[in-house]
Specification:
Elements (H helix, E strand, L loop, with lengths): L11 E3 L7 H10 L4 E4 L5 E4 L4 H21 L2 E5 L4 E2 L5 E2 L3 E5 H5 L16 E5 L6 H14 L3 E6 L4 E5 L6 E4 L3 E3 L8 E3 L1 H4 L2
Parallel strand pairs: 8-9
Antiparallel strand pairs: 1-3, 2-3, 4-7, 5-6, 7-8, 9-10, 10-11, 12-13
């Protein structure tokens, strides 16, 4: 295939002859680094390229501040963009940053803690990169909430907007906020947006 990147509609979707198991998908991902690959509920593979450098930096900052807060808070565990989660609908998804309480982690049977955790994080952050289209990202945010997340933030540096998702509520849209405050499971977490927007 000899297409320019701007001719492709990202993310790419590939439908295998049959849905891959978690183990098969793990091996497939390892063989196709640095691509980021997720699985939809219907078995389709969702293939994404690595972030542009600036977008990767913004994602890393948002994730890094959640990681630092997690260490000081002590109520849960942080997971980065390489961690996949098997959701109730059978899809396998990863977030740019995710958080799960120790209470929820400790309730997982040992067989559900191997390979991809069969659990939905309670809090997720997704940072839109230059190659991301908004409609699929918003669908993904709705999937996190429908699967059990209590709070989800979609950070869009291009528009300087943060969209906040919660179960049973309308999406909150914050235009160029100074900071975003965590609530529910991550009450006390604050993300100062100047650190993410950059120059």
């Amino acid at each position: 295939m000899n297409l320019a990147l701007n001719q492709l509609e990202l993310p790419l979707r590939i439908r295998p002859d049959r849905a891959m198991t978690d183990e098969e998908l793990g091996h497939f991902c390892a063989e196709n680094e640095p691509l980021k690959i997720e699985r939809d509920a219907n078995g389709e593979l969702i293939v994404m390229s690595p972030n542009w450098t600036e977008g990767g930096g913004r994602e890393g900052k948002a994730a890094g501040y959640l990681f630092i807060w997690t260490l000081s808070d002590g109520r849960g565990e942080y997971y980065g963009s390489n961690a996949g989660f098997t959701l109730p609908d059978g899809s396998l998804r990863s977030a740019d940053a995710a958080w799960i309480s120790f209470d929820k982690l400790n309730s997982l049977p040992p067989d559900r803690r191997k390979r991809y955790f069969q659990v939905c994080p309670e809090f997720v952050i997704e940072v839109r990169s230059d190659t991301d289209r908004l409609p699929p990202l918003r669908e993904k945010m709705e999937l996190w909430i429908a699967s059990g997340a209590a709070l989800a933030w979609l950070i869009d540096p291009e528009r300087r907007v943060v969209e906040v998702y919660r179960p049973g509520e309308e999406t909150e849209v914050h235009q160029d906020p100074t900071s975003v405050q965590g609530d529910g499971p991550v009450r006390g977490f604050e993300l100062v947006m100047a650190r993410v927007w950059g120059s």
